[in-house]
Design brief:
The chain is built from eleven helices and 16 strands. With about 425 residues, it is of the alpha+beta class. The chain folds into two domains: about 290 residues, Zn peptidases (Aminopeptidase, 3-Layer(aba) Sandwich), CATH 3.40.630.10; about 130 residues, 2-Layer Sandwich (Alpha-Beta Plaits), CATH 3.30.70. It has a six-stranded mixed beta sheet, with helices on both faces. A four-stranded antiparallel beta sheet has the order 4-5-16-15. Strands 10-11-9-12 form a four-stranded antiparallel beta sheet, with helices on one face. About 50% of the residues are buried. It binds zinc ion. Zinc ion binds next to helix 5.
């Protein structure tokens, strides 16, 4: 249990630099680090780490180095400049437990700008919230962890364990960034990911599969459309069939110990649609990029087989697709879900710290979205979980993160780092 006197010393150190922390968060959130454009965000992180005396490892990820690792998902975009940045703080005598603190700097696209009240990459403070794409998911959390470690130093604590501060990319599409740190050899006794959990603990999350439906049609002049076959309308029918699979999977989820109480935890989403070439030509092609969630414990390959079978069955009922079956292409995440096990010690520590600081018990929030903790927990024996600030509308318009929760999270993470790694 953390001593209240120590907790308030740490909190005072956080408060002392909190204004600077928020300024840094605004600067970091102003970088439009969507997929493939993360370099300036990684430059900034590397700079922040160097300025604090971390030993910085900044490398370009090679797909061939990670493609054989578990839960690797296909990468289709230009990956030649993809980087990972890890800063390491090593005590002179390493006698305490080590810790990975990890944040992702990739953010999802903004959607139509006219739907934002303030521009997504001009982060704005209003009524105690920071508005901006990525401010919540998860740049404020990443910097909370960075300033948490700073606060310990300023409070005069010398950590006894090693810290790897990891800034990764690709969290939003494959998890390749987190995977690259493991491939590079980074390990620790525990990993904390300050994703925006609303100061709840996420130690359970679904898996996710991304795939693309590639549908073909028969183009004819629309004036005699019945002689052709419309690929866009055919894609509708496949989407309908996959909604059936989604309903089926959610039915199965009702018996799940973690997700049974959650309404519709496994969401299928046709997220991108492209097709056709001309308004007066029956479209010859349609591509639909999809995402579907799976329960922890479900096997990705078995689920892929179910997806393929569902699409094939729907195609057989269609006169054109029966002869030209659509293809299913795996286009990103191929990730198992996870349930954190064997982590009573770090979780108990976080519970106790959270309760001491907030006077409320630590609530759990099973993730119906994915996070990078899975790699550590499932395949590398490193207990990993998420705990971070309170954000709203992530992936939506007017994404925002609560400033008080950033401050409280920073204090909680700092206390956790101190207790976990030990200090002199
Ligand atoms: Zn995130």
């Amino acid at each position: 249990m953390i001593q209240p006197e120590l907790a308030s010393r740490i909190a005072a150190a956080v408060d002392q630099r909190f204004e600077e922390q928020i300024e840094t968060t605004l600067r970091f959130s102003a970088i439009p680090s969507t997929r493939g454009a993360e370099a300036p965000a990684q430059d900034m992180m590397a700079g922040l780490l160097r300025a604090r005396g971390y030993a910085v490892d900044d490398w370009t990820i090679k797909i061939e180095d990670i493609s054989s690792l578990p839960d690797f998902g296909p990468i289709e975009h230009d990956f030649s400049r993809a980087r990972t940045v890890v800063g390491t703080l090593r005590p002179d005598q390493e006698t305490g437990r080590s810790l990975i603190l990890q944040g992702h700097c990739d953010v999802v696209p903004t959607g139509p700008l006219d739907m934002w009240q303030t521009p997504p990459f001009a982060p704005t403070i209003k009524d105690g919230w920071i508005y901006g794409r990525g401010a919540g998911d998860m740049k404020s959390g990443t910097l909370a962890a960075l300033y948490a470690v700073d606060a310990l130093r300023e409070a005069g604590l010398k950590l006894k364990g090693r810290i790897h501060f990891q800034s990764v990319i690709e969290e939003e599409s494959t998890g390749a960034g987190a995977l690259s740190t493991l491939q590079r050899g980074y390990r620790a006794d525990c990993a904390l990911l300050p994703e925006p959990t609303g100061q709840q603990l996420t130690d359970v999350c679904v898996g996710v599969i991304w795939f693309r439906l590639q549908v073909r049609g028969e183009p004819v002049h629309v004036s005699h459309a019945t002689e052709g076959s419309n690929a866009i309308k055919a894609a509708y029918r496949l989407i309908k069939a996959l909604e059936g699979l989604e309903a089926d999977w959610n039915k199965r989820a009702e018996a799940d110990p973690h997700f049974g109480a959650i309404q519709h935890p496994l969401n299928f989403n046709p997220g991108i649609i492209r097709g056709g070439d001309w308004a007066s030509s029956v479209p010859a092609w349609c591509d639909v990029d999809c995402r579907i969630a799976i329960l922890p414990g479900w096997d990705v390959d078995a689920c892929r087989a179910e997806i393929t079978a569902c699409v094939a069955q729907a195609a057989r009922a269609d006169s054109f697709m029966a002869n030209r079956p659509p293809e299913v292409v795996w286009s990103g995440y191929l990730s198992h879900g996870y349930v954190l096990k064997g982590a009573d010690e770090p979780v108990g520590m976080l519970e106790s710290i959270h309760t001491t600081l907030t006077d409320t018990p630590l609530a759990r929030r099973p993730g119906t979205g994915l996070n990078d903790a899975r790699f550590y927990s499932l395949y590398y024996g490193i207990p990993a979980f998420c705990y971070g600030p309170k954000a709203e509308k992530i992936h939506g318009f007017n994404e925002r993160v609560n400033i008080q929760s950033i401050r409280d999270t920073t204090v909680a993470i700092a206390c956790f780092v101190a207790e976990w790694c030990g200090f002199d």
